[in-house]
Design goal:
Elements: H1 3-15, H2 19-29, H3 36-49, H4 60-82, H5 94-100, H6 105-111, H7 114-119, H8 121-129, H9 133-143, H10 149-156, H11 160-184
Helix pairs in contact: 2-3, 2-4, 3-4, 4-10, 8-11, 9-11, 10-11
Length: 197
């Protein structure tokens, strides 16, 4: 077996279990949903190019997510420079929210958010996109990649304390945006999430 083929097979052995998580991370991180395939291809190509730098036995997940993160940042910067249309503000999910909500939104979000999130993916995706880039990256790496604080710090090359505080901020920001959406669309009475009856 040639050296190049052995490298490719070893790389794919590491990559295959992570393909779904990498795609989900890119899909939720990118401002342009049409760029997912290109970003993934670039990230994987760059990681393969540098695979000789990877130390066998270390955290491959964190190593390759660095490439995915850098490619999403680059793509989002390009998209911001060339973007001519805003993302749609009138996302048609009111009926889905109504079906999911049998009790106040805050209780649902805190106790069991899955029924709401399953039915309002577009709203959540928009709210995630509106987070600051670092907040979005930390939230997605933790929620989708299931990385530990230390791993996220390694991927993003920031202190672990920054990861912890940023994750807390991103969760608050996401919750506030969803509550705002609920209030704006009559799904939630103003003040209902602040402990008022």
């Amino acid at each position: 077996m040639g050296k190049g083929r052995a490298k490719a097979e070893n790389f794919m052995r590491h990559l295959e279990p992570l393909q779904g998580a990498l795609e989900a991370y890119c899909r939720r991180s990118l401002h342009d949903p049409n760029a997912v395939r290109d970003v993934l291809q670039s990230a994987v190509a760059n990681a393969f190019r540098d695979f000789h730098l990877y130390v066998e036995g270390t955290n491959f997940r964190a190593w390759i997510f660095q490439y995915a993160h850098l490619e999403t940042l680059n793509c989002n910067r390009k998209h911001a420079r060339t973007r001519h249309e805003e993302l749609p503000a009138d996302l048609p999910v009111e009926d889905a929210w109504q079906m999911a909500l049998d009790e106040p939104l805050l209780k649902v979000l805190l106790d069991d958010p899955d029924p709401v999130l399953d039915r309002c993916d577009a709203v959540v995706a928009q709210a995630v996109r509106e987070l600051a880039p670092l907040e979005r990256a930390v939230l997605l790496l933790q929620a989708i990649g299931e990385f530990k604080y230390r791993e996220i710090a390694e991927i993003l090359q920031v202190p672990i304390g920054t990861v912890m505080s940023t994750l807390a901020r991103s969760r608050v920001g996401l919750r506030q945006r969803l509550v705002q959406y609920g209030e704006e669309h009559g799904l939630l009475k103003p003040g209902e999430t602040r402990g008022n009856p």
